[in-house]
Design goal:
The complex is a heterodimer of chains A (158) and B (184). Chain A is α+β, with helices and mostly antiparallel strands and 158 residues long. Chain A has three helices and ten strands. In chain A, helix 2 crosses helix 3. Classes of the chains: A alpha+beta (158), B mainly alpha (184).
Chain lengths: 158, 184
């Protein structure tokens, strides 16, 4: 019985780990898997965000990014192409869920896909599109990735 | 008299409902026919020599592109670029859609499409095409995300998976009058 419980706990742990997608924190070479696209997802929060969970392609895929500091940040990670919606996030030591109108975005294969900035405010959390912030962050923090996916939009005089 | 009025009311409602249904259906059909070759002869959505599925998918992208969907505009540019291998007049279309798409959401992949198609155009044609881009940008814009394009196309052409078999049925491609043995 104990063995079964341990295996079950381990499987759950492994499954949870699998759902967490690695993010690119540095300007590095990105090797996209076949059928995948690069996602740029921003956050704007007054508090530490433990996790943000995405659900995609008719609830078949789930993905999670973790440990995002307070402030405005842009995270890069890859996902299989398709439609994704923000399902829930953990912040202020609470779990918040979007029920009826989940904010969604699309991931195109072999492209960088800006999903938006999730602005976390108690009661009024929403997904906003700040292309200017996206481009600025890409230019300054990820120049190499920016040049590869966004082309001349990343030039200094652009 | 009262009964007569009620009957009239029911009849009128039925007519109204029928009209609405027909109107709604007509609208949907016209949306998808908007980009058919005959509707766009000489325009920037025209295409020839495509099979039915190809033409329908093309029409779907064209419809979204004309609504300002930058992803559909890019897909259209890629499709035109491929078509241009057989008919070089399509380089203009590829150039126009790629440039338009890149205005709303700049991407390196779109720049490559612009460069590829633009290199095949005479300088004066490129100037005229840029004018078309400006007009289209003013009229329809770009950058709007409207639909889950992949899913919509997938659903439109959903086919049974290979190997699936529904008891009592024969897949149509296996139906044949030849070599069929009659049961004893």
């Amino acid at each position: 019985m104990n063995k079964t419980l341990i295996i079950l706990a381990l499987s759950t742990f492994l499954f949870a780990c699998r759902a967490t997608v690695p993010t690119y924190d540095q300007d590095q070479h990105v090797e996209l898997q076949p059928g995948h696209g690069l996602v740029a997802f921003g956050t704007n929060s007054l508090d530490y965000i433990s996790s943000i969970k995405f659900v995609g392609d008719g609830n078949k895929n789930t993905a999670m990014i973790k440990a995002i500091k307070e402030g405005t940040h842009l995270r890069l990670f890859q996902l299989p192409a398709g439609k994704y919606c923000v399902l829930e996030f953990v912040a202020y030591q609470r779990l918040y869920q979007f029920n009826s109108s989940k904010p969604c975005f699309y991931v195109e294969e072999d492209e960088i896909n800006y999903g938006g900035h999730l602005v976390l405010r108690s009661g009024t959390s929403r997904l906003v599109h700040s292309e200017a912030h996206f481009f600025n962050t890409m230019r300054t923090k990820y120049p190499q990735i920016c040049r590869r996916f966004l082309g001349s939009a990343c030039d200094e005089d652009a | 008299m009262k009964m007569h009025n009620t009957a009239l009311l029911i009849f009128a409602s039925a007519i109204l409902l029928f009209s609405c249904t027909v109107a709604a259906k007509t609208e949907v059909i016209s949306e998808f026919e908007l980009c058919e070759p005959q509707e766009f002869s000489g325009g920037y959505g025209s295409v020839v020599e495509l099979d039915r599925k190809g033409a329908e998918v093309f029409g779907y992208y064209c419809f979204l592109a004309l609504q300002g969907e930058h992803r559909a505009q890019k897909k259209l540019a890629s499709k035109y670029l491929k078509l241009a291998e057989k008919n070089d007049s399509y380089y203009v279309n590829a150039y126009v859609w790629a440039t338009l798409s890149n205005l709303g959401a700049p991407r390196a992949s779109k720049e490559r499409l612009i460069k590829l198609s633009g290199s095949q155009l005479e300088p004066e044609v490129q100037v005229v095409s840029q004018g078309v881009v400006d007009t289209l940008y003013a009229d329809i814009g770009t950058g709007i995300v409207i639909q889950d394009m992949k899913k919509n196309i997938r659903n439109r052409y959903k086919k049974p998976l290979a190997g699936t078999h529904i008891p009592g049925t024969v897949p149509s491609r296996l139906k044949s009058t030849k070599n069929v043995e009659e049961p004893d």
